[in-house]
Amino acid sequence: MNICIYTVITYSFSGFLRMKKIIHCDCDCFFAAVEMRDKPEYKNIPLAIGGRADRRGVIATCNYPARQFGVRSAMATAHALKLCPSLTVIPGEMEKYRNVSAQIMQIYREVTECIEPLSLDEAYLDVSGSNLYKGSATRIAQMLRSRVLQETGITISAGVAPNKFLAKVASDWNKPDGLCVITPDQVESFVENLPVRKLHGVGSKTAEKLQSMGVDTCGDLKTLALSQLTENFGRFGQRLYELSRGVDDRDVVTHRVRKSISVEHTFAADLLSLDECLSHIPELYRELQQRFSRYQDERSIQGLFVKLKFSDFTQTTIEHRTMDHNVLFFSDLMTRGYKRGNKPVRLLGLGFRLKDLPLTEPLLQGPFLPGPLLQGAMLQNGMLQSGMLQSAMLKAPRLKGFPLKNTFYKNKESEGFQQLSFWY
């Protein structure tokens, strides 16, 4: 696991100067590491966790001996075996990996509750408020690496830096089993020579476009004006402008809202016609409904989408905004998507776009609400902005015994801002 730590200076609401310290922890080839821990005969041979080559499987992860042959995650298993004929490919055991991940996350929680898991093997930790080791994020990272190895047998790499962007870059810097620390006074020099391909969101096409503009490093990127970047890259231009200067104001988010849910299936043999594709919708739809059942108490459906990947690896996704769903809706979307390529299909996927459930209870409940008459509180995207409400209540005189005359319900169809008033 790699650990990356950073420190950023911010002001708290109390007005005191506070150092922001972020650690990014990343297990080294996690699935493969668990298998090598449990089966020593795997340790020194090329090993991958993935699907079978004859079933068009892909590699989920591989160990470092396999990577020396060029094997990588998300690579087709058949291609991986061509690069490394001696590669041992096993299907893996997700339940076992989830259990090990839970052990590791529990170790993190003993340091801080401010944790943002990105996957089973990767997480951000905000240790800004920790008093461990006199607040030293570097020593905390060292301790975490030691404890995870001792208690689970898994190595992690870690990055320490003043923001999430730099922490994640740093965790990859000394892999495997490494630690990289970027202090606030090192940010400018570190970012200056950082290749733009290391920036989150910069894929091969964006990198090629930047290279055509004479940009290979963040130092090169800094020479471009913000207007030039937004003209060429849209809203992402603003992000490029900030990252090239080592700026990333994102907080560690302890709870992520799921925006979509989907199921996919890659077929051993190409589907040669639209009818063949349509015949698989009922099975995929049942699986999708089963997956959604775990979230239906928290999220509702606001749209449907279908994904098709064709035999030449081109793909298309087609969507429809609706709260209704059935096999016929998905069949219509798949028909329209198939006509975009009109060629054999290797992968099909169905999905739901999700949103918050409409509230069925009042946002405020009585019979009494301590506080003054409040007007102008805002509802943004269906969520009461509690900070504004609390702020207004703190500043106004306290009133007692005024019965609440009206309560407010979340508007099922609300979008943007809505004005609320409260009467007593």
From TrEMBL:
Mg(2+) binds at residues 26, 121. Poorly processive, error-prone DNA polymerase involved in untargeted mutagenesis. Copies undamaged DNA at stalled replication forks, which arise in vivo from mismatched or misaligned primer ends. These misaligned primers can be extended by PolIV. Exhibits no 3'-5' exonuclease (proofreading) activity. May be involved in translesional synthesis, in conjunction with the beta clamp from PolIII. The record marks 31 as: Substrate discrimination. This is DNA polymerase IV. Its EC number is 2.7.7.7. The active site is at 122. SUPFAM superfamilies: DNA/RNA polymerases (SSF56672), Lesion bypass DNA polymerase (Y-family), little finger domain (SSF100879). Monomer. It catalyses: DNA(n) + a 2'-deoxyribonucleoside 5'-triphosphate = DNA(n+1) + diphosphate. It is found in: Cytoplasm. It comes from Neptunomonas antarctica. It comes from the Bacteria. NCBIfam families: PRK02406.1. It holds the Pfam family IMS_HHH_1. Residues 22-203 form the UmuC domain. Binds 2 magnesium ions per subunit. The gene is dinB. GO terms for cellular component: cytosol. Belongs to the DNA polymerase type-Y family. GO terms for molecular function: damaged DNA binding; DNA-directed DNA polymerase activity; magnesium ion binding. Its cofactor is Mg(2+). One of its GO terms (biological process) is error-prone translesion synthesis. It is an enzyme of class 2 (transferase). Keywords: Cytoplasm, DNA damage, DNA repair, DNA replication, DNA-binding, DNA-directed DNA polymerase, Magnesium, Metal-binding, Mutator protein, Nucleotidyltransferase, Transferase.
